[in-house]
Specification:
There is one protein chain. The protein has 152 residues and is mainly beta. It has one domain. The protein contains one helix and eight strands; from the N terminus they run αββββββββ. It is globular.
């Protein structure tokens, strides 16, 4: 009986470790520092060079203050009227400290997957873009980025 209880307990623990991430959340590593928190989106329309696009900002707000990061913003865009699965990554912005200017990152990896009606999950990675950053690093690489079942 004790062996059966221990065996069931072990299976229960391993099942928890493999549990799916909570919907509407995201995480990433910034120069090796792991950050996670809530993910929310904001839609807008605008133009670049006279061409109109649908924009989507996906904001990840870390629940901890490690590394001084207040927010990560993924800026996505697509042609109006096209499906949401066609959103492409424009850039990534890391906001830290009290300075309102972001650290700009160029995407090195981006995947968007539909997970239900109007919700998506994805992966991302990037490197700092010193040429377009208003303030120089302290950050250089953004890796292992994910967001889970975010409503668009």
């Amino acid at each position: 009986m004790l062996a059966t209880t221990l065996l069931l307990s072990a299976f229960g623990c391993s099942k928890k470790e493999g549990a799916s991430p909570t919907p509407g959340t995201g995480s990433f590593q910034l120069d090796g520092i792991f950050l996670s928190g809530q993910a929310k989106t904001t839609r807008s329309t605008g133009s670049i060079g006279g061409t109109v696009y649908d924009f989507l900002d996906l904001d990840l707000t870390p629940s901890q203050t490690t590394g001084g990061v207040n927010q990560l913003r993924l800026r996505l865009y697509k042609v109006p009227g096209s499906p949401a699965t066609t959103y492409k990554l424009n850039n990534m912005l890391v906001y830290s400290g009290s300075n309102g200017s972001p650290h700009n990152f160029v995407g090195t990896d981006f995947t968007l997957t539909a997970t239900g009606e109007g919700s998506f999950s994805g992966r991302f990675a990037g490197k700092v873009s010193a040429a377009s950053s208003a303030i120089p690093g302290p950050y250089t690489t953004l890796t292992n980025g994910v967001f889970t079942t975010v409503q668009f």
